[in-house]
Structure formats: structure tokens, C-alpha cells
């Protein structure tokens, strides 16, 4: 019978009915047939019905016991089937109740072992998933950082303003992770301080904007020692300085890296976070180092641009000197004049209504006109005189050893000449020539410095424009 | 009026002093050499080297060009007249206004040949300028005395 049940157990659902059927076929039906024969053939012949009833009663008891046994065998299987169904439904925490050491018990154990294996596999898969997620986040971080670096690189190569580049650098570094407080400080060698030039994500910006004295605190020391300072979980022992840094900048962990250019420290970069437990990885450090190098490149580029500008003396459009050169020249001529007890004059010449000329004839025509005017101005000067394009439509002339009267004569001659210069033959008659206004100043009468002379000349230029209009 | 070209006065002054036997040709050459290297006015260099005194130079100018010599030390000047000319103009050109009568301003100058300076003074004061010769150090001292020691 157990063999049959074992076979039947493969199809659990109708198991109970099959068992009932089997029980009926094997016990109840033969019993009923026996009963029938007993009632019809045996009972009428033998009047001692009592003992026969006892036999029937015992038989009934045996039958019921058999039923109980069968039920005892089938029930764990049915229960197991229910448990297996629940596990299959996803409840891996559920286990099959194991009763007895028989085959059903073995089956239960096997099922439990299988469930455990599946459970282990799933948790392993889950941890792989987590790892993949971390790796993806890491890759994403690096891709973002690299694209940021590319953006900064192109910004540097277009010669953007240093402040703009620094702001962008801070922004990109802060966003390597989510909005970390980040600051770039540049060394001011005159005051020996690290001055914050760009910062992001600090709560109290006023505090962060304060300069840091060189050699003081972890920031100042990082700049002097030219070493990285890393404050994180791996920090062996804290110090009052470090605690003060944490408090001032409201951070828990941070990396401080010196910005190095030509083996000299030009400033520092600090980025931190507020996580209670945090460790900076080698990757974090390397990525940050690339950014620090970018800061150094931006600084060097800025220095080179400034140097190139300083070296430039000629205005590209007109070929005359530029404003910076003429200011230096004027200062020099004044000094010479003072030594040799001689005068020196300065003339500012402005093209009248140049803006409206440009708006009517176009910027190109305006530039062409400026070129012609520049030529006419320089033709009227001696080799010791110097002419420059001072502003958009302004020219400046330094006249060494000329006093006011002489400068006035020269300026009048230039004005007269300009009145005859046809700047654009194609333009309508009114726009063919451009008028000039002038302002003259002289050393020593109007001052003994370039600034004084320029300001006096500008004042007189305004007076001239006003007088001509009136 | 055409301004004398650069260095003409120095050359003139040097030659004038040689003619008057105050300095020797070699001394002038040495002074010119120093002027070339370090700059400065030839008269000042000659005084600094001890080849001539300021008085000798002033007197040479007086005799040659007929400018009257005015020893400023013994002369009382009206402070108002001095201040007709701004301090830095007086200092730069080494001159000082000493007397004003009507439209005529008398000015004591170390170098009365500096026509630029005379023109500038006439422009500022609107007066006709009469020149006197004085020594550079006398003028410097008088400027300090009348304008105060701090520039």
C-alpha cells in the first residue's frame, strides 16, 4: 500500500480521493459484501448472533485503524505539498516541516536543503547586484568627472577668465560626489595668505572666504609642506587643529591637496563631506589630483596670457601703440621732463559721433575709418612723439619737450587735417569725414604724473565736445 | 618763437664756460660723458664735479646774454607773487616769481634760456615775463621758504 501511496504522491492533488477510493475498494466494499453474506446466509443459521457481531465490530475497528494509518501517511505529503507551493510562491523563509525518518521525512529534508541553496544563490545574486550598482555609480562618477575635465580644458584653451574657470572647477569637483563642500585657495605671496578664490556648498560662506595664514592649520601647513592631507576614518589621531578645521568648515572628512606649479605651491584645494564614517580610496585621490593639475594649468595659462598682454605694445587694428604702452611712455617722459627742466604734453583725441557712424555704416566701416584716422594722426607727428589708440574711438599722443602752446598748435593741425580725410568715399556726404575733439594737458602745469595728465586731458576733451556742440 | 632743440643749451653753456676759461675742454667732455650715462643737466653736473660754481655759471649767463643777476638770498619777496606760479611748475623749471607790477611778472630763473618755461608762466599768469638769473640752489631754497618744506 505504501508503494501505491508513494506512486500516488507524485500527483498530490487528487491523492486524498484516490486514497479514499483505494480504502473503499480494499476495506469497505469487501466488508459490506461480507456483511451481506453474514446477514443473509450465516445469521439465519446461527442464532448466536452476539459473537458474530463482535467479529464484525473488531473488523470495523481494524478498518478504521487502517484508515487512520493511511491518513497519517498522506497528511504530511499534503502538508508538504502546501509548503512547497508557498516556497515556490517566493516565501523562501518558509521551511518544510519534517516528521519522521521515513521517505517523506527525507523528501522534506531534501526540499529544505533545496530551498536553502536557492536562498543562498539569491542572496549571492543580490550582493552581486549591489556590487554592480556600486561599480556603475563609480563609472558614472568618473565619466562625469572626465567630461567636466574636458569642459574645463576647453574653457582654459579659449582663454576664459580665471575666475570663471575656478568657479567651474569647484563646481565639477563638488559634483564628483553629491554636492561636497569644496574650496580653491590661491597663495598671495605679498601677504603670505591663502585667499579663497572659488568655493561651493559651504553653509557659512563668510567664514570660508577668510584668508588662511600660510603655515597655520592643516590648510596652511599643506601649502608649506607641499603634501596631501587626508582626514578620514583612517586618521590615526586627531588634533585641536583638525577639530578646528572640521568645525570652521563644517565637515567631517576632507582631502587637502597643494596646487603645484614649477615645483612651487601656488595654493590649495580642499574638498570634504559630512559623512560620519568615510574613507577616501586611491581612485578618489587620483581623480582629485587630475583636477588639481587642471587648476595649476589654469593658473599658468592665466600668468602667460597676462605676460603676453604686458609684452604687447601695439594696437592690432591701427598699428599705433596701445593704451598701456602710452601710459608707461607718458610716465617716463614726465620723469625725463622733470630732470631736464622741460615740459611734456599729452593730447587725447576722440572721434565725434563715432557710435552713430558705426550704427549707420557698420562696425567694419568704423574700423576702416579708425585706420585712416590713425594714419593721418601719425603723419602729423615728429619721430620723438608717440601716438596710441587709447580706447575704442580715442587716440592719445605724447609730445615730449612740447609745452601747452605747441601742443595746442599740433592738435589744431591734426584736427584740420582730419577734417579733410575722406574715411568712406561711398558714404553719403555727411558721413564722408569724421570730426575730432581734443583735450590737452601739460607737465608741469597740469601735474607731475601720467594719471593727473590723463585726467586733465579727459576733462578738457569733455569741455571741447560740449563747446563744439553748443 | 621757436624752442631751441634738445641739448643746445647744454652745449652752449659748456662752450660758454670754456670761452670764459671757467672750465677746460677735458672737463666738459667728462661732464658730457656723465650726462650721457646718468642723465641730468650739464650745469648741475659741472657743479657736482667741482669744475664750476653755480655763481660762475649764473654770471656767465649774465654776461653773455645780458640777463640781470639776482642774488635771491638778500631779497625779500612778496609771498602772493610767488604763489602765482604753482609749486611743481616752479620746482620743475627751477624758477620763482619775485615781483609783479601791472601786467609784468619778474621771474628769477636758473636757466633763463628755457623758453618753454617762460611761455608756460605767461600762459598761467597771463603776464609778460621779465627774467633774472639766479643760482639753482638759491631758487630751490627760496621755493622751500615760500611754499613750505613739504611739497
Report on the structure:
The complex is a heterodimer of chains A (470) and B (151). With 470 residues, chain A is of the alpha+beta class. Chain A contains 14 helices and ten strands. Chain A has helices at residues 2-8, 15-45, 49-88, 103-157, 162-174, 205-208, 217-225, 240-249, 282-311, 323-340, 354-361, 363-379, 404-419, 450-469, and strands at 182-188, 193-200, 212-213, 229-231, 253-261, 264-273, 344-351, 386-391, 394-400, 436-443. Chain A is rod-shaped, with a radius of gyration of 50 Å. Chain B folds into two domains: 8-52, no CATH class; 72-147, Type II secretion system, protein E, N-terminal domain (GMP Synthetase, Chain A, domain 3, 2-Layer Sandwich). In chain B, strand 1 (95-101) and strand 2 form a beta hairpin. The longest helix of chain B is centred in the N-terminal third of the chain and has 14 residues, at 25-38. Classes of the chains: A alpha+beta (470), B alpha+beta (151). Chains A and B meet through helix 10 and helix 13 of A and helix 6 and helix 7 of B.
